[in-house]
Request: fold
Amino acid sequence: MSEVFFLVLAHLVQTLDDMNIDVAFISEHNLKAQYNHVLNSLHSNYTSHAVFDTSDVTGLGCGKGGSCILYKKTMRISDNSN
Reply:
């Protein structure tokens, strides 16, 4: 993962705190399963759930990317769809 991506993640952590964000979405063309531990430890107040494309696109050694949802551990969800 590039140094730029780590700088973006550091900015995301600061923004999560500064703006009291409940849910954040990350989509990155080079987000791979091997970085799941980074996402899981990104912020102690958030849980992450990520999915990754593990296919090898035309022999380039990279898939189509991945997506991650970060949500605040204290967030409460109610379903009023009844």
